[in-house]
Amino acid sequence: MLKTALKVSSISLRSLEFPAFISYHNIDKIDINDVSTYVPNSLTKSQCSSIIAEIKDCFERGVRFHDYDNVLNQDTLDYINSLMKSRRANKNLRSFLQTVQNLISSVSIVQFHVQPTYHSQKFTCELAIEHYQIRIKPTKESIDSIILEYAQEKFHHINSDHLSQIVNFVQRFYRQNEFPQEIFSHLNEENNNLSEITNFFRKQISESWNKFLSENQYEQRYSSIEKIMEHLDSLHEQSTSFWNELLNSIAISNEYLLETGLIFRMTPTTILPLLQNESVHDFLLTKDQYTLLGGIVVNWMLEQQIERILYFATNRKWEDFKKEISHTAHSNWIPSKHISWLILELEMNITI
Question: Which end of the chain is least crowded, N or C, by CB within 10 Å?
Answer without folding.
Answer: N
